From TrEMBL:
Domain Glycosyl transferase family stretches: 188-335
Species this chain originates from: Lentibacillus persicus
Protein name: Galacturonosyltransferase
Domain Glycosyltransferase subfamily 4-like N-terminal: 5-149
Alphabetic keyword roster: Transferase
InterPro entries: Glyco_trans_1, Glyco_trans_4-like_N
Pfam families cross-referenced by the UniProt entry: Glyco_trans_4_2, Glycos_transf_1
Gene Ontology molecular function: glycosyltransferase activity
Length: 365
C-alpha cells in the first residue's frame, strides 16, 4: 500500500503557504503525500521545495461566469479521480463549494474550512439565497466543517447546513515563533500600518481618509499601506504616496520588518473569517485598531490590547487613532504585550494543526 494522499484545494498560494504551511509540514513529516491545487503564485515554488505536488488551476476568485464555474467543478472531479486522495481539505468559498460537490459526487471524504462568508452572503439578496443552496448541496456529506468565528457558524446553524459536523477553531491561528514579540519602537514619530488586499471591504477608504486628516494635524506620523490592489485603488495610492500622505509598499512577502517599525496596526475591515493580519500583529506585540465585527473583535481586548471602531465609520477611526496618539509610550507598549499574551493563550496555530491531524486520523480508523 502506497502513501496516503491529502489534497488541498485553495484559491491562492498565500492562503496555504502563509496560513497552512505548518499543517502541510506536519502531514509531510507523518508520511502523507501532499497535493496542492491552486492558481500559480510565487509561494508555490516554496511549497514544492517542501515536498508538495502542485496542480495548477484556472480559478477566478470573484467571477460568476457559469461556464468557468462548471469547468472548475469538472477540473476538481478530474484531479480527485486521478489522485484518489484519502481526504480533501478545502478552503475559501469556491474550493469549498465546488470541491465539496466534486467530493460528494465521487464519495471522497473532505473537510471544509469557512474562512469567511464573502460579501455575496453577508449582503443578502439573491446571491445569499443561491449560496445557501450551494452550501447545502456541497456539504451534504462533509466530514467536518471548521469555522473561524462564531458568527459564520451561526449562519450555518440558522440555515440548517451540515448540522452536527461543525467545529470552531481560533481562526487559522498564528505561528508564535515566526511572529515573535518585537521590541517596541521609539515614538518620536508614530507609525501606523495597514496590511491587506486593497479593496473597499477591507476598509482602505476609511484608512486613507484617516491618514489625510491625521497627517495634516499630526505631522510626526507615518501611514504605511501593504498589499496588492484587488480593486481600482492603484492610482490613488501612488498619488497619496507622492504627496507623502502614505507610504505605499505594494505586496510584501515578509511583513515583519514593517511591524518592527510600526506602533499600531489599523484594520478597518467590513467582514472577516478571523483576521490573520491582526493575529500576526498581536503576536508581534503591536496594539491594534480594528472594526467591531466578528473575526476582528475576538482578537482585541478593548482598551487593553487595542481599540474597536464602528465598521465604515472614518470619523470613529480618526478619534481612536487620536486617542492612541495621546497615550504615553509605556501604555502603548503594554497594549502590545497584552495582545501577545492573548495570542499565546488563545490563538496558537498548533491548536489548529492538531485539530486537523486528529480529524484526518479519525477518518483512517
Amino acid at each position: 500500500m502506497g502513501k496516503q494522499k491529502i489534497l488541498f484545494l485553495v484559491n491562492h498560494d498565500v492562503v496555504i503557504y502563509n496560513f497552512r504551511r505548518e499543517l502541510v509540514e506536519r502531514l509531510l513529516e507523518e508520511g502523507y503525500e501532499v497535493y496542492i491545487s491552486s492558481p500559480y503564485g510565487e509561494r508555490i515554488d516554496d511549497l514544492i521545495e517542501l515536498g508538495c505536488n502542485y496542480l495548477n488551476v484556472d480559478l477566478n476568485r470573484h467571477g460568476l461566469n457559469v461556464v468557468q464555474e462548471w469547468k472548475l467543478l469538472r477540473y476538481y472531479k478530474q484531479i480527485i479521480r486521478d489522485i484518489k486522495p484519502t481526504v480533501v481539505l478545502t478552503y475559501t468559498i469556491k474550493p469549498n463549494i465546488y470541491g465539496g460537490l466534486a467530493c460528494k459526487a465521487l464519495g471522497v471524504p473532505y473537510i471544509a474550512n469557512i474562512t469567511g462568508l464573502g460579501s455575496s452572503v453577508v449582503n443578502g439578496g439573491i446571491m445569499q439565497a443561491v449560496s445557501k443552496v450551494l452550501y447545502k448541496w456541497a456539504f451534504k456529506d462533509v466530514r467536518r466543517i471548521f469555522f473561524q468565528n462564531s458568527s459564520n457558524q451561526q449562519f450555518f446553524v440558522d440555515n440548517n447546513i451540515a448540522m452536527g459536523k461543525h467545529e470552531l477553531l481560533p481562526g487559522s491561528g498564528v505561528n508564535l515563533n515566526q511572529f515573535s514579540s518585537l521590541e517596541y519602537p521609539d515614538d518620536n514619530v508614530t507609525e501606523f500600518v495597514f496590511i491587506s488586499r486593497i479593496m473597499r471591504e477591507k476598509g482602505i477608504g476609511e484608512y486613507l481618509e484617516a491618514a489625510k486628516y491625521i497627517k495634516e494635524k499630526y505631522p510626526n506620523t507615518v501611514f504605511h499601506v501593504l498589499g496588492f490592489s484587488e480593486e481600482d485603488y492603484e492610482e490613488q495610492l501612488r498619488l497619496l504616496h507622492q504627496q507623502e500622505v502614505i507610504q505605499y509598499h505594494g505586496m510584501q512577502r515578509d511583513i515583519r520588518k514593517y511591524l518592527a517599525v510600526s506602533h499600531c496596526t489599523v484594520h478597518p475591515s467590513y467582514h472577516e473569517g478571523m483576521s490573520n493580519v491582526l493575529l500576526e500583529s498581536a503576536a508581534s506585540a503591536r496594539p491594534i485598531i480594528t472594526s467591531n465585527i466578528n473575526g476582528c473583535k475576538e482578537i482585541v481586548d478593548e482598551n487593553t490590547s487595542g481599540y474597536l471602531v464602528e465598521k465604515g465609520n472614518s470619523q470613529d477611526l480618526i478619534e481612536k487613532i487620536e486617542k492612541f496618539l495621546r497615550l504615553p509610550k509605556k501604555q502603548k507598549e503594554s497594549m502590545g504585550l497584552a495582545g501577545r499574551t492573548k495570542m499565546e493563550e488563545e490563538f496558537d496555530r498548533n491548536i489548529v494543526v492538531d485539530a486537523y491531524v486528529e480529524e484526518i486520523r479519525r477518518m483512517e480508523l
